[in-house]
Each structure stands twice: as C-alpha cells, then as structure tokens.
Amino acid sequence: MEKYHIERNTVQETLVIPLYGRKVCAEHYPELFEAREAARICDSLDYDFTEKGKAMESVAGLFGAMEVAQRHYDLLWEVRDYLKEHPEAAVVNMGCGLGDSFSKADNGSCRGYSIDFPDVIKIRNDILGQGEREDNIASDLLDFRWMDKIDSSKGAIFLAAGVFYYLKNADVIRLIGKLNERFPGAVVVFDSCNERGARLMRKTWLKEADIDVSAYFSVNNSSELESWNIGSKKISERSYMRGYRDIFSKVSLIHKVLIIFCDKLVRMKIVKIELLGEQK
Ligand SMILES: C[S@@+](CC[C@H](N)C(=O)[O-])C[C@H]1O[C@@H](n2cnc3c(N)ncnc32)[C@H](O)[C@@H]1O
C-alpha cells in the first residue's frame, strides 16, 4: 500500500494531531467516539506516530486527544444542525487537513468544499478522493480568491477545527470580515481558547513546529469577540467539552478536573458567528 509522506516541522504536519487523537480516543472510549476513518487514514501515512502515541498515553495527553475528538463532534453537530434548515447548503471546511466532517455530515444534497495548502490537498485527493458534490481547493485561506469557488446560493456554513491557532488574530478577523462581506446570511463555526490555552497547546503538541506564537489567535473573553470589526454579526458560544453533550460522568476524576479547568481557566469554546453582512 502506498504511504503518503507528511513533512515534519510544518503547519501542515499539525493535521496528524486531530487524526491520531481521534483514533486514540476512540480506542479508549469506543462508546463515546467513533474514528474508523481517522484510523484508516493514519495507517496510510508515512509518519512516525511513536512520539505522539507516547504523549497521548499520559493523563494530559489523553485529555488532549479527548479535546480534539470532542471538537470534531461539536462542529459536526453544528453542521448537521445548519443542514436541517439549509439541506442544499455549502459546507466549507477551512483548513480541512485530512478530516472527514463533510462525508459524515453529507445528507445527499449539500455541497462540500475542503480548503488547505496544496501539499495537504494533494494527499487528501489521493486518500479521501472527492465525491460529485465535493471540491477540494488548494489554497492558503488568506488568499481570498478561494471564496470565488463557493456556491452559497442555498446557504453556507464555514467551519474551522483547530485551524485559527496557526493564524494571527488580525488575519482571523480579516478572514471572517471577508466572509461576512461575501456571504451575508452564512454561519461560521470554530473552536477557540484563551491565551493561556494557546500557550499550553503549543507546549504540548507543537514543540517541533516552527511557529512564532506572539500575536496568534486566542479569545480571552466574549467582549473581545464582540469588538471584532467584521461587520454585523450575531455571536454565540458553547463550552467545548460540555456544550454539546456531557461526557463528564463517563471520564476519570482527573479528566473531570481537567474539563473544569478547560471550561473555567482556558475558556475552551465553540464559537458560532451568524454573518449579517452590512457595513463595518
Ligand atoms: C490542526 S490541523 C486541523 C485539521 C482539520 N481541521 C481537523 O480537525 O482534522 C490544522 C490544519 O490547518 C491547515 N492550515 C493552517 N493554516 C492554513 C492556511 N493559512 N491556509 C490553509 N490551511 C491552513 C493546516 O495545513 C492543517 O491541515
């Protein structure tokens, strides 16, 4: 079987974290998480998972895996919810990596767009392919020409799972502002945490990645979101670990403590912004 190489020390390499995390989490908690496709994709990569595997054996590491698996669940919930009212909408996965959210949410009539850097899209095309209502778009998210390819005539939901941490705050604001200008009426959903969380995440998972942390995305409180100059908007937030379903009773005491820590001190949220267009 051909194995697909993932270059180390690149932002693209970060796509293995949610994939492998979901696989590990499903092994530990099969009643809570399902990740057969993620496991298949991990098997087809030419990537040494030993170090990540070891890290995920620790209590904190397994919690990290739980976080990415729960985030996948939360954002999928949002997409499915949106599709109930807009069954033919565009589902736009920004910084898709090798995630399979579209195929999981696919209701047979929506349209999927998956955007990532060219080398990621090349591997995605080979491993996951592209269905007839699906487009894989090779582009930097900050090169807004990719937006020309999105058919939002039946509505659009834009999701970003674990992606904005690799962009500067100002660029995230610019990106969402542009989405508001181009796709009024659409919805954007993404995960966020405060600066402490962003620092912790980098320390745990991104030691190898050559990323300058200053000025990168984080959200310290809801008034920060409200102050974003992105045009008219309606913002709501839910707890990342407990806002969509409560796995609290199913996890160990130490993981319960970490869930509370993440809720209260790291401010891990899923943010939903309804784009209302209009002037900034
Ligand atoms: C942590 S991974 C998350 C992948 C996927 N969303 C998931 O949950 O499995 C971050 C992804 O964002 C992509 N990414 C980061 N910055 C990007 C940018 N400026 N343009 C396009 N993709 C970007 C990376 O290449 C990588 O695939």
Describe the SSE topology.
Layout: E1 4-5, H1 16-28, H2 36-43, E2 45-46, H3 50-55, H4 59-85, E3 90-94, H5 101-105, E4 111-116, H6 118-127, E5 134-138, E6 156-160, H7 169-182, E7 187-192, H8 195-205, H9 222-226, E8 232-239, H10 253-264, E9 269-277
Parallel strand pairs: 1-2, 3-4, 3-6, 4-5, 6-7
Antiparallel strand pairs: 7-9, 8-9
Can you summarize this structure?
The protein is α/β, with parallel strands linked by helices and 280 residues long. Helices cover 40% and strands 17% of the residues. S-adenosylmethionine binds at residues 11-12, 14-15, 17-19, 95-97, 99, 116-117, 120, 140-142, 161-163, 166-167.
User: Any low-confidence stretches, pLDDT <50, length ≥5?
Assistant: none
The level 1 CATH classification is Alpha Beta
Average of per-residue pLDDT values: 93
Report the structural category: alpha/beta
Q: Remind me, CATH topology?
A: Rossmann fold
- Classify the oligomer: single chain
User: Over the alpha carbons, how many angstroms does the gyration radius reach?
Assistant: 18 Å
**CATH homologous superfamily annotation:** Vaccinia Virus protein VP39
Q: Going across the biggest sheet, name each strand in turn.
A: 5-4-3-6-7-9-8
Estimated share of beta-strand residues:
15-25%
